[in-house]
Specification:
Largest sheet: 2 strands, antiparallel
CATH superfamily of the largest domain: Winged helix-like DNA-binding domain superfamily/Winged helix DNA-binding domain
Helix content: 55-70%
CATH class of the largest domain: Mainly Alpha
Oligomer: single chain
Structural class: mainly alpha
Strand order of the largest sheet: 1-2
Strand content: 5-15%
Length: about 130
């Protein structure tokens, strides 16, 4: 059973890598043909979804948010939050970084925010969403 679980985990990682590669190709092609980005479904790990949802909900309530605020909300270190934010950006989520007095403030692009609300691009399920409401 352990071997099967291990192989499934490795397959999931490979699928995520392939999806990331495909998303990058699609994004490059879209940029060539269209000024406006076209968002498609984005595959995120559970932790990436938690970080995304924290950023999404907190920024909606308060405006741009810091790494520290996100880390407190979801009980991760600031370093881990930074790494997950990097992953989100690499996977095509338009995270906006603003620097004020040498501190980074994060937000999500408004167009993407509306698309997420309408189409659930990052596949947030109800149980996860309830934890952040």
């Amino acid at each position: 059973m352990c071997n099967v679980d291990s192989k499934i985990d490795k397959l999931n990682e490979k699928i995520e890598d392939l999806q990331l590669f495909i998303n990058r190709l699609v994004a490059k092609d879209d940029k060539k043909h269209n000024e406006e980005p076209v968002y498609t479904h984005i595959f995120l790990t559970t932790k990436e979804k938690e970080v995304f949802l924290a950023l999404y909900t907190m920024a909606e309530e308060k405006g741009p948010i810091t790494y520290k605020a996100i880390s407190r909300r979801i009980c991760l270190t600031e370093f881990m939050v930074r790494e997950y934010i990097i992953n989100l950006i690499e996977k095509g989520i338009p995270v906006i970084k603003k620097y004020v007095n040498q501190e980074v403030y994060l937000d999500i692009d408004q167009k993407f925010r509306h698309m997420q609300a309408k189409e659930n691009l990052v596949d947030i399920n109800e149980s996860m969403a309830k934890r952040f409401v």
